[in-house]
Design a protein that fits this description.
The chain is about 60% helix and about 0% strand. With about 140 residues, it is mainly α. α1 runs antiparallel to α5. The protein has 2 domains: about 70 residues, lambda repressor-like DNA-binding domains (434 Repressor (Amino-terminal Domain), Orthogonal Bundle); about 35 residues, no CATH class. The chain is built from 7 helices and no strands. This is Helix-turn-helix transcriptional regulator. Pfam families: HTH_31. InterPro entries: Cro/C1-type_HTH, Lambda_DNA-bd_dom_sf.
């Protein structure tokens, strides 16, 4: 289930709101809300998200979570046409295998993607080479 579907269902359950009541509050069909919650519909429009936020008067943290979950639930990926060829091949391989990935493999890929963040957080000091001292010749 996509992140938005899970979060929408969770918010609705915590507040004890039925789908039909939520639909009436925000001006959408109950069947649309049901389809969102079970993941049959793609991520909602920003208009839907904003209506939901307004109708439920969500606190700032939940608003941000809802917007973030809607963004994470996108099913399409658009890449710039001037990206290197390797990016296209990598994404094709991922697309071909994504349905067969295990949870461990998914976590590994996510950790690899976070590597750049962890390296940029560290303060990297330049490595200096030490010059060797020349041995003094033994005097006779």
């Amino acid at each position: 289930m996509n992140p938005f579907a899970c979060l929408l269902h969770s918010i609705r359950m915590r507040r004890g709101i039925r789908q039909i009541d939520l639909a009436e509050m925000i001006g959408y069909e109950q069947t649309y809300i049901s389809a969102l919650e079970i993941g049959k519909k793609g991520p909602p429009t920003s208009e839907f998200v904003e209506r939901l936020i307004g109708a439920l008067d969500l606190p700032v943290e939940e608003r941000d979570q809802l917007r973030h979950a809607a963004d994470a639930s996108q099913r399409r990926l658009v890449i710039d046409c001037d990206m290197p060829q390797d990016v296209f091949w990598m994404l094709k391989e991922l697309r071909d295998r994504v349905s067969d990935l295990t949870p461990v493999e998914i976590q590994m890929i996510r950790q690899v993607l976070k590597l750049k963040e962890s390296f940029s957080d560290e303060c990297v000091e330049p490595v200096y080479r030490l010059k060797r001292r020349r041995k003094k010749e033994a005097q006779m």
